[in-house]
Model the fold of this input.
Amino acid sequence: MFYNNNLLVNEVVMSDFTRHARTHTCGQLRAADEGKEVTLVGWVHRRRDHGGLVFVDLRDRFGVTQVVLNPQIDAAAHELAHALRAEFILQARGKVSHRPAGTVNEKLDTGEIEVYADHAQIISQSKTPPFVIEEGETPSEAVKLKYRYLEMRRGPLARALEMRHRVCMAARRYLDALGFLEVETPMLTKSTPEGARDFLAPSRLSPGKFFALPQSPQLFKQLLMVGGMDRYFQIVKCFRDEDLRADRQPEFTQIDMEMSFVDEEEVRRVCEGLIGEMFMAARAIKLDTPFPLISYADAMNRFGVDRPDLRFGMELAGVSALAAQCEFKVFKDALAGGGAVRGMAVPGGAAFSRKDLEDITNEAIQLGAKGLAWIKVTGEGYQSPIAKFFQTATLDGIREALGAGAGDLMVFVADSVKAGYAVLGALRLSLGHRLGLIDGAKLNFVWVVDFPLLEYDEEEKRYVALHHPFTSPKLEDIALFDTDPGKMRARAYDLVLNGSEIGGGSIRIHQREVQDMMFRALSIGPDEAREKFGFLLEAFEFGAPPHGGIAFGLDRICAILTGAESIRDVIAFPKTQKGACLLTDAPSEVAPRQLKELGLKRDLS
RNA sequence: GGGGUCGUAGUUCAGUUGGUUAGAACGCCGGCCUGUCACGCCGGAGGUCGCGAGUUCGAGUCUCGUCGGCCCCGCCA
Done:
């Protein structure tokens, strides 16, 4: 028993037989309601006990209303008030009154009025909560996750979930108006070889066999197109058993879409409208559309990543040709080994201390670089341990290529092309943040297009699909299947917002022959293709419409809309970085009987 | 699999060069208080310093291991 006061037991039992009704929510009453007899129910947000007079802030999702418990109005209610504690649920009936002059609380929407309780009862008691339910103070992540239901009462999470709901409703309204049908697809489905690791669900009725939870409804939405549904969408959970990040949870939500008889342009227009509706619903922001396009190659060359953050400059530049003229061994060796020298200008970086430079270098090394070369551009000239290996004319050329001016720092990575992108791309982001170059209020959308179709996987010694195996190559590139698959471009598009990939999709392959060629390019043999995707290949033999689609990361979009650092903050019950649920303690062991029924044996060796 | 960072009261955090009895704020408990709204005032309780081992005369502090939260690389659209 956790009652603070035994005298309340009767109240509690009695209250189970009364109607826990309310006439208004705690955020509803205004001066215009003065004189009304109302009943409120809510959590005791705060109690200010003056002895003879008690004020209670009653809180629900909709707001806070001050209830006054005055012995002259109702002695029993006033007596009860002394027993109230934080997070008790209180039902109070009474008259709405304008507050006395000078006591209006401007900070509350309901601050002009208060309710004089003529009857009050405790509906539910509460242990002292592990943290104070208040806007300002934030408990640590672990505490928030364990007591998620209390965190929800604190405000920010409730508002995030509310916004998420509005975003979803806007999406549904918009897509419905455009003739999309929301169709559900199976959660227990077939494991697919490409892509992320699957979550598996053992089948009791087929011992030894497994369902997989969908990484996305990809194949089903294509089958819906073959089925003539024409325009499909679904707000749907997807599952990928990979390591977590701030923007990655093992189960996450997509706004998944697919359309028949469309090209890239039409998909983008529909998406721009959709995103526009969601931003309007969430933040009353009108977006500039259409969003600009950038090619994958451009994004990589200028920003080092395929999801460029365009809110600030600091673009990368290749300086291999100029670097070839220097005597610096590191650069020469990298170039001789087929690598490249890339660099960027850091605004104001000439003022960096030795320690600053050391930190940046360590960061680059942590990101996979062998080292980081730097040259300060000062009013007097170039200042750097490696400047002596360069002729001044060469340095001038490099400075010009990077767009560096006096007071800036030039940094360089000499490595393989890929490693150079990775290091400088990440360094650009981190320096951009640290130097305050990023305007947090900006919303910078860009479509990344012209992705390569395939990427050579050194480990597996074969090509893998950059997007997925059902992405159509550009028609003019199809001949390259036989000659140079690595050069093929995909009919794919990613939508990037502020350096975060919020959606990606493609025009799909709808011809059996092309799909066969694709599998061949991926070294998926005919037998394996038939076993894994036979149903799709067969469907393509029955009049498959050309189609394409996209999936948006709802969690990421909501995180950006609320300014959250992590998608955890827009998910009601998220998991920790180790993929655990601190609230339910999942995953957990199961009874031996359950394993036996499924024909499973544990082997943790 | 790897790198970084954090773990001290219910919560958020401080704790010096290894040294006596580990502190603060909020919260909690008791008392007083009829216009507060982060109410105020008086008093009080509350600690396995994540866990384990080691170094030391002595460990919250140093070392190793381990568990957990967070960020990142790998992985993943």
